[in-house]
Amino acid sequence: MLNIATKVPELEGVDRHAIPENVLYSPTPIVLKGIYADWPIVKAAKQGDVEAVDYIRSVYSGEPINASYGPPENKGRVYYNDDLSGFNFTGSKVDLNLVLDSLLKHRDDSEPPTMYVGSTDASRWFPKFLDENSAKIPNTKPLTSLWLGNQSRIAAHYDFPTNLACNVVGRRRFTLFPPSQISNLYPGPIEFAPGGQEISMVDFSDPDYEQFPKFRDAINHAQVAELEPGDALILPSMWWHHVEGLSSLNVLVTHWWRDTPAYLGRPNNALSAAILALRSLPIEQRQAWKHVFDHYIFNNELDEHSHIPDKVKDILHLPLDELHARKLRAELLNKLKR
């Protein structure tokens, strides 16, 4: 285990029906201790694994679910195979009850196989769960997903949406890094990753500092949070997070939402376009475009466009409304076809 001195700050006694806005939209991670301790699934988990599994069965829709299996020698790591031509696990659609049976069967193994059910839309597979275990985040319509399995190690990655991650069964450890640490975490391929999002290539259980020397600096900027059932983590957009399931049965409930309208699209699309159009330019031209991006994008709060009359600002209006967004999207599509 990495030696990380900084713990994520914890708040106790937060009302789950009235999470303060400065907490919910904190720019840095915060743990909300015991905020969902009264959820039925948390109460079941505190009775034992069998009771937790029985509760999950009672709220499961019965539709086959995507599940992953890794052999014991993976030691819980969900990652690539040796030559990065594929992954170190197999996936299939199965009845969740079979996964739950297997989790109980192997819960006392010293080296169990890795069983992992990743992001699973609760509204489709667990609608009753949402009725009984609702976070009710004000002024948002989050995508709520369940993640479950046994001892697992999910490589560090980032997500665009803000996340309220609720630990409801078992113990879970998050190791977190600010977005500035991206280079020190050595991201892998963009288009081919276990969860669809590029991941750190560093094995946190056994870092190779010869291959990844800058990871030492990342550790100096890391924070760690260990969650018990009923605890939740405020995980800000774009923070890198390595997630470990520490118990023989673990369930996490995530609530993802974005802070801008969906019609604006995903920032990943802009990154792909920049890789296409900018990354191969000579360094002097790339630096020139960096100034252009600073002017139009990254220094936007400085009101660099106040000298332009509103009636001719067009796409420089802030915020960009849906009409201008759709117009811009159509223009981009036409240009990309050339």
Write the layout of secondary structure elements.
Elements: E1 10-12, H1 21-24, E2 30-33, H2 40-47, H3 49-59, E3 65-70, E4 77-78, E5 90-94, H4 96-105, E6 114-121, H5 122-125, H6 127-132, E7 143-149, E8 152-157, E9 162-169, E10 172-177, H7 215-220, E11 223-227, E12 232-235, E13 240-245, E14 250-257, H8 267-277, H9 283-298, H10 322-336
Please characterize this protein's 3D structure.
Strands 1-2-12-9-14-7-6-3-5 form a nine-stranded mixed β-sheet. The chain is globular, with a radius of gyration of 22 Å. The chain has ten helices and 14 strands. Strand 1 (10-12), helix 1 and strand 2 (30-33) form a beta-alpha-beta unit. Helix 2 (40-47) runs antiparallel to helix 3 (49-59) and helix 3 (49-59) runs antiparallel to helix 4. It has helices spanning 21-24, 40-47, 49-59, 96-105, 122-125, 127-132, 215-220, 267-277, 283-298, 322-336, and strands at 10-12, 30-33, 65-70, 77-78, 90-94, 114-121, 143-149, 152-157, 162-169, 172-177, 223-227, 232-235, 240-245, 250-257. The model has no long low-confidence stretch (mean pLDDT 94). With 338 residues, the protein is of the alpha+beta class. Helices cover 27% and strands 23% of the residues. The longest helix is centred in the last third of the chain and has 16 residues, at 283-298.
